[in-house]
Amino acid sequence: MDYVNAFWVGGLICAFVQILLDRTKLMPGRIMVLLVCSGAVLGFFGVYEPFQKYAGAGASVPLLGFGNTLFCGVKEAVEKDGVIGIFTGGFKASAAGIAAALIFGYLASWVFEPQMKK
């Protein structure tokens, strides 16, 4: 059942984003920022953790999960280091995921020979 919940929740998030892209004048970058900020706000209010436990990867993989990761990192760093944690917590919490995306993207560019669009 975990796979089913992840599938329908992730699909619902993606469908919502597609509706925003098709029906509004919002640019894709602004929608991405909206998703990251929404994840952080939901984490702040304590709503995201139960949502993520229910939906699993359907909630943690989209940009909502990235926003929540940033929030949790900042929260933890502020508790540990004080005000300086506001600036360092998000970087520490998300560094592994960002590094993995860069490394795997670079490796994929070796394998698949990327080309410019015409």
Uncertain regions spanning at least 5 consecutive residues = none
The largest sheet is: none
DSSP strand tally: 0
Radius of gyration: 17 Å
By helix and strand content, what is the structural category?
mainly alpha
Strand residues, percent:
under 5%
Estimate percent helicity.
over 70%
- List SSEs in N-to-C order: HHHHHH
Shape: globular
Mean pLDDT: 91
| Termini Cα gap | 44 Å
Helix and strand topology:
Layout: H1 2-23, H2 28-44, H3 48-55, H4 57-60, H5 63-81, H6 85-112
Helix pairs in contact: 2-5, 5-6
Index terms:
globular; mainly alpha; transmembrane helix; transmembrane; SpoVA/SpoVAEb family sporulation membrane protein; 0% strand; 118 residues; SpoVA
A few lines on this structure:
This protein has 118 residues and is mainly α.
Please explain how this structure is put together.
InterPro entries: SpoVA (IPR005562). This is SpoVA/SpoVAEb family sporulation membrane protein. It holds the Pfam family SpoVAC_SpoVAEB. This protein has 118 residues and is mostly helical. The protein has one domain. It contains 6 helices and no strands. Helix 2 packs across helix 5 and helix 5 packs antiparallel against helix 6. The termini are far apart.
